[in-house]
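Per reviewer request, we include the raw input and output of the structure prediction for the construct analysed in the revised manuscript.
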Amino acid sequence: MAGLIPAIRLNSLGRSRFYPLYHRFALSQDGRRELIPGLRRRASVHLCSLAGEFEFDEVPDDGRAAEKHSALRLALSQLGGGGDSSSDSMSYMQQFFGSRSAPVVSTGSLKLDIALGVGGLPKGRMVEIYGQEASGKTTLALHVIKEAQKRGGYCAYLDVENALDSSLVEAVGVDTDNLLISPPDSAENMLSVVNTLTKSGSVDVIVVDSVRSSVGPELDRRHVEEVTCGGKALKFYSAVRLRMNRMRLLKTADKVTGLGVRVEVVKNKLGPALRKAELGIEFGRGFCRVSEVLELASEYGLITKEGSSYIIRGRVFDSELAAHNHLAKHDGILDGIVTDLRSQLFPDR
């Protein structure tokens, strides 16, 4: 019966009447308790009458679903040609309707891509990166630009602070010849550049570094609590918000070589939020990519680890340092492992 009736609902709660059967028992001659037969018949008749007072939902019809699908397609075509909506809105609706997952750009860190849940930062969305000074915000932005350029995308960097280090940009691996750099002198100019580049549809990543500097010192106030720039507007409109904090110093033979940072996914409209990723940043070079790949590849079985030995593509290395140096010297092997990892971690991307 339950398989034939998908759902039922009451016409009126006031019409439902159930008799207290548990109060009406009679003792038989041998002392056992049994229901009064007349009451049993009365209850069964009344329950049958109650069944007629329920309404049954219709069984889903494939023909009806196809009809609704065609009607939606017709409505979308009318929106595009009838003047009720702009062509940009129509194009976005068609892309959203026809796709199951939004396109993303990798952050350059597999750990952070895993924490985001979708393999990177979503295209066409606003992303806010905030945190302490010198916590790796600019480094993360440059790695995102690098990954977008790998796919043939154009990127723009609005250097509001006028503090972009060209040597760091090249060390990270960004193609500076194909990077649009603009130093706007005011918030109005910055917004004008962003608006023009966005409407052109030709730029994949636009970095504003930073929103705070575009406000101006005359609007600055004494720091009371941690509040991101732009008030609540950026919090509301951002699809992803990342908070970066310095955790520790990375040292090699008592020499400080980098920073250990923690990235927390504070907000994520495309995946689970409140995840964290701990990354290493090497001064003058960016993310510690080799160490990260070696760790994740060993965890997911792409690199075999036996005791202190590592087996990479059939070659045996007797220590982690030897395996690390091998991957650092052979970019082709490293990129191949990264590709295999992404295929395993994000099969739909």
